[in-house]
Amino acid sequence: MGLLDGKVALVTGASSGIGRESALAFARAGAKVVVADVDVAGGEETVGMIKKAGGEAVFVKTDVTKKDEVKVLVDKAVETYGRLDCAHNNAGIEGIGGPCTECTEENWDLTIAINLTGVFNCCKAELPQMLKQGGGAIVNTASVAGLVGFPGLPAYVASKFGVNGLTKSIALDYATENIRCNSVCPGVIHTPMIDRLTGSDPEALKAMEAMEPVGRLGKPSEIADAVVWLCTDEASFVTGVNLPVDGALTAQ
Ligand code: NAP
What we know:
Bound molecules: NADP nicotinamide-adenine-dinucleotide phosphate
Number of strands: 7
Radius of gyration: 17 Å
CATH topology: Rossmann fold
Order of helices and strands: EHEHEHEHEHEHHHE
CATH architecture: 3-Layer(aba) Sandwich
C-alpha cells in the first residue's frame, strides 16, 4: 500500500535531477505520474524508468513559461488519469552568474520567466482542477537561495524569494478549500545543475561540499522524499511552509 495510491501527480522539470527523482518517488508511493519538461528525450527516459519499476506515467512536453502549454499539461493530466492531486512545480534554471551590474536584462528576464512566472503559470492552471475536485497539494521548488541571499546570483535569488512568497500567498488563499501549498528549499544537491555550475571541476565541487555543514552534497532523492511527504495526508496540517532540506546550510 502506497501513501498516494489512486492519486495523480504532476512534476515539471522531470527529465533530470530533482524532478526526475520526485517523479520516481511519486510513482513508488502509488501515484500515476505526469512527467513534464522541455527535454523530450529525458522525459521519455523518466517515463521508461517509472514503467520499468511497475508504475504508470505519461510525458507531456511543456515549457512552463508558456501558459497555453501549461494549460494543455493540466488538461492532459485530467484527460489521461481523471484528476490532479499533487503538483510539484520544479522546473528551473540557475541563470548566468555575476553581481547585479553584470546581470543582463536577458538573463534577468529568462531566470524570472522560468523560475518564478513558470511556477505561477503552473499554480494558476492546477488550482481550478484542485478546486473542482475538492482538494490537492502543491509543492513548489524554491531554494535556500529563496531564504537567504547568495552572492553572484541576483536573478536566481530574486526568483526563489518570489516562489517562497507566492507559495505562502496561495496557501492562505486556498486554506479553507482543502488545498495545501508548500515549497521545498534544497541546499546544494548533486544534479546536472551543480555539474554545470562547477564545470564538474573536483575543486569547485569540494567548495560546494564545504558550504554544507553536513560535509556532503544532498542527493536528489532526499528532496524527492520531502516533496512526496508534503503531498501525503501525513502532512495534512502543513501548509504555507518554505521547508529547508539543506543539511543545516541555513541554520548557520
Ligand atoms: P536540472 O537537473 O537542470 O533539472 C531541471 C530540469 O528543468 C531540466 O530537465 C530542464 O531542461 C528543465 N527545464 C528548464 N527550463 C524549463 C522550462 N522552461 N520548462 C520546463 N522545463 C524546463 O536541475 P535540478 O538541480 O534538478 O533543479 C531542479 C529545481 O531545483 C530547480 O528549480 C532549481 O532551481 C532547484 N534547486 C536546485 C538546487 C541544486 O543544488 N541542484 C538547489 C536549490 C534549488 P533542460 O536541461 O533541457 O534545460
